[in-house]
Amino acid sequence: MINFILKKIKFTKPRIISILIVILSLITAFAAVYKWFEGGTILYYWDTLLPFSEEYARAFFSTWYSVIFPGIGGAGLSWVEYIFSISLLERLFSSLSVAQGMLYMLFISLSIITFYILSNYLLETIVKPDRERNIYKIISFLFAVFYSLNLFTFYYSYFLFNPQAFILSILPINILSLFKLFPLNEVPIKDSFFPKDKKSLLVTNRKKILWVLVFFLSGLFMTSGFTTYIFLAQYFILILFYLILHLFFARKKLFSRYTLTVILFFLIVILMHWWWFFPSLLAFKDLYQSQSSLGTTVYFDVGSIKSNLLNSLRLFGSPMMNNNPFSWDNFYTENRWFTLPLFLFPFLIIYALLKVKKNRNIGIFFYFLIILLGSLFIVKLGNPPLAWITKFSFEHIPFFGAFRDAWHKAGLFYIFAYFPLSFIGFAFLTKVLIEKKQYFLLKISLSFLLVTGIVVTGPFFLFSYDNIKKINFTYQDKQYTFSAKTKIPPEYYELKSYLLGKCDGATILEIPKNSMISSAIWQKYGTSYVGQDILTHFIPCNFISTQLLNNGPDSFIFSPYMLLEKGDFLGFKNFLIQNQIGFVLIRKDNIPYGYTNYVYLNNASPKLTMGFLNKDHDFKKAFENDFFTLYLVKRPEVNYNYGFSLPASIVYTNSSLNSGRDYVSLSKQLTDKREYLVINKNDDFKKYKSLVNLYAPVANCVGCVKISSSAIKPPDESFLRKLKDFVKQLIGKNSTDSLSQDKKISYALIDSSKEFSKMMRALAQKDFQESKNHISSYIKKLENIESLSKNYKASFFDLNNKNTEMKIFLGAQNEKLSEYLNSLAVIKNDQIRGQLYLLFSLQNSMLFEIEKNIWETDFKDKIYRMRLDIPKEGKYICTVDNYNNGLRIDNLTLGSVKNYKNSTISAFLSKGSYPVSINYSTNSIINIASLKQKSGEVKEVSLGNVPNGIYKVSFSPSSPSKQKVALAITKNKLNLKILELLGSSDIPQNDFIFIDTGSFFSDKNYEKYFSISSFDKRSYYLYLFSLNPQSREKDELEYKDIFIERAAE
């Protein structure tokens, strides 16, 4: 049979070369990735998505998420190709390592082969050498390797796998098929894409039909790469741009049958991806809002640090390169001679531009050039030239923030144009040297190309000794390492074997809690991982652990960990029962690390939790090995499949349920109830009030929300706004005569704010006449507010709310005016200056009267005040939930009932609103009555071991001084002599928890907040030192009442 096949194959020279290219591509791909997968290992790091079992693929369509509809992770259904291909390979070869390795080899070899085919097309249509030579084949293959294995593909496709590899590997053949279907100049264009008669269709257009299949099949192959939507948008733009070029070069009538055919083709391209994008589109708005809430410009400055034009032209300086250091990084970031060869590529592009300008096939070259320049403009981000355009786009153009990691989002199509253009340049150079018979120069050129290739492919070959991402960190004075190259230990398979079939309809709570990613150290095997939680991808059970960046679910998930942190084990157990959480899984392979653990959850640790679970008879140890201990939550009731049950209790709460504390408070009031339905919307409460059988009202803080002067904004003075106001005046809609006294005051406050803004604008413009008018008008509005407020009669809380509202508006205006009067602005007009000080005095007197009557939280005297709304009369048990281990409740007052040293009150309450006051005290770290410091001296104060939390540091000076003083809190003892010699710009940042170098000693009390969040128990220090020790001032400084205490969070 084999002999028969060999006889049928005609081994022509082109066929032999093609087979050789395929073999060399596979060998190159194998050499590039072998080290990553030798010994049965896999690559798994950070937010890599890797399905660890075929069960993951089976569960794919069963997972629904509000911003991913349906599917697991990424862009929903677009993952189908990736998930099922790797699951199929794993099933065939019974090895995840082989499956991932084969997928890597497939992508790299396909990239080389498809680019090689594209480069040969560009060679024939643009360069047009006099005859076929093997040197052109060699050059094509070299550039294909450069395209597939370079600095960009290393950082953005392979060392941390990104599904954009699907696009990189097949895009060259996809675009080539587009060139073949819609040629620009080299082939005459027919009037119709499809011939009219069947014979012509089968005979003359047989190749065209083949290219149609290639185009659409390759487009489908790229589906998983479009997980990042911006890739799909850019792909559509690429196709549309080429079709417009095609119509331009074809010189057909705009309204013709052929134009309609081209439009129809583009619509089919869009519909080709509609099968997976349409379901995602249903949640696209929510997805964009959730991502834009993080800030689309937050990455702009960070991404611009090293991505300047020269670096971008040499393919380095990307954020991924900056944030993932390797031992060889300095070769690219600091060694100018090493990266000098990389200038060859941009010079080749310029050379190609000079050579191709008279070529009749300039259209394709122009197509690639526009892609290159457009992508380069985005890739360089905030760097010149014309950086303001990019910044403006990020801040004002919708969805442009999708390019927040520009090297990732635009770099894909940047390198797609970069290497074809540089290949064309080198092919032209080779052609010229051959024509002039400069073979020595040709050899030198090839040698320089090889050197450049060694540099650009460095991470894969030259530096392969260190191309596996590792993170070294210290915990409790021991060194640990996370490695991207890992292997799932047998203990995970043992846990999976036990849980399969037992976790249906149940939920498993993991201890400790992860962040968005998790980690483990498997010392007995010398392996580790840091990335998405392996358990959730490996075992088909419902795990609670990972942060989702979604407030609702995250708040709920956080609740049981808060109960453990607080030491409320009974509340923790009740929470599990209430929410049908059937298992508690203790992970013993977790070593706390800043990015993977909640650093402030010291008590919700595996050791302390196991101690509690072992003593409680409602928990049964069901499974244990070296890495896991699994506890079963014993319950007398039969577990409901998939967590579905009808509610036995309907609970009403006024809590917004948007934080873990809200869920904890509700859970504690439900005790061990199950099958309950919670209502927290007023409209729902009105509908189902008769069915509510449990009330769980929550008191809200009064005076905790502060509004600064920045809230004062100039009024809208647009023509449209003025027109609307004029129409309202005509129809009498602006009249406030029919409004209640409450609304009249609110409208008067808004009017005063508008008038104040106009006054400040006139002062800024030094328009004194307008300033006088607005000052006079503003004073009248203040007098009107004062008159309305005196006649306002209401309940205690309504009156308090109105006073608070007035304080917020007038306080912000007063702060703004104070800033203006204290600024260096010179007010030459004596009358204006006098009126402003009179106005400032009037504001102060009004604020004084208002603040006297306000009942609100007083952090200075440590009184927390709240409002409790009771929806229905009855007997209530009122409890204070204290989540701050650094605070102590001294007494609780509810209405007229006061309890000392007790945080619980039981009372019969009528429907209505009640004032609640809580007197509390805080744990102090230091309390020093007086501390003297000579000029230039450094004072050190040991703080000892400080628990995690938020703290306030405060002191007051005995007298003003011109000395500029720095205050620092460190987690290690510093060398005092070094500090004495430092200027503000030289202060070391390592080990500093908090530092303030901008404060002058004045007559004002100093008050700042800082936080401590650490896994280790450390000794902390406070330092006070002068930043101008050489000052002539020799006075002794004295600090009074230095106080560091736990803040009320």
Query: How many discrete domains?
Result: 5
Number of helices: 37
Q: Report the major sheet.
A: 5 strands, mixed
Shape: globular
* Rg computed from alpha carbons, rounded to a whole number of angstroms: 35 Å
Assembly state of the chains shown: single chain
Low-confidence stretches: 66-74, 186-195, 199-203, 983-987
Class of secondary structure makeup? alpha+beta
CA-CA gap between termini: 80 Å
Please give the share of residues in helix: 40-55%
Beta-strand proportion: 15-25%
Count of β-strands: 30
Task: Write structural notes for this entry.
The chain is an alpha+beta fold. Helix 8 packs antiparallel against helix 10 (206-221), helix 20 packs across helix 23 and helix 23 (406-435) packs antiparallel against helix 24. 47% of the residues lie in helices and 17% in strands. Strands 9-6-10-12-11 form a 5-stranded mixed sheet, sandwiched between helices. A 5-stranded antiparallel sheet has the order 16-17-22-19-20, with no helix packed on it. It has a 4-stranded antiparallel sheet with strand order 23-30-25-28, with no helix packed on it. The chain crosses the membrane at residues 16-37, 102-123, 135-158, 164-182, 209-226, 232-250, 257-277, 337-354, 361-379, 412-434, 446-465. Keywords: Membrane, Transmembrane, Transmembrane helix.
Question: What order do the helices and strands come in, and which of them pair?
Answer:
Layout: H1 2-8, H2 13-37, E1 42-43, E2 45-46, H3 54-58, H4 80-93, H5 96-127, H6 134-148, H7 151-158, H8 165-181, H9 198-203, H10 206-221, H11 229-250, H12 257-272, H13 274-281, H14 284-292, H15 300-303, H16 309-313, H17 319-323, H18 329-333, H19 336-339, H20 344-356, H21 362-379, H22 387-396, H23 406-435, H24 439-456, E3 470-475, E4 478-483, E5 485-486, H25 490-499, E6 507-511, E7 518-522, E8 527-531, H26 534-538, E9 542-544, H27 551-566, H28 569-578, E10 581-587, H29 606-615, E11 619-624, E12 628-633, E13 649-652, H30 660-670, E14 676-679, H31 682-687, E15 694-695, E16 700-701, H32 719-731, H33 741-764, H34 768-790, H35 796-822, H36 830-852, E17 863-870, E18 874-879, E19 887-894, E20 897-900, E21 904-909, E22 912-922, E23 924-933, E24 938-945, E25 949-957, E26 964-970, H37 976-980, E27 992-1000, E28 1006-1012, E29 1019-1026, E30 1037-1046
Parallel strand pairs: 2-8, 6-9, 6-10, 13-14, 13-15
Antiparallel strand pairs: 1-5, 3-4, 7-8, 10-12, 11-12, 16-17, 17-22, 18-21, 19-20, 19-22, 23-30, 24-29, 25-28, 25-30, 26-27, 26-29
Helix pairs in contact: 2-5, 4-5, 5-6, 5-8, 5-23, 6-23, 8-10, 11-12, 20-23, 21-23, 23-24, 27-28, 27-30, 28-30, 33-34, 33-35, 34-36, 35-36
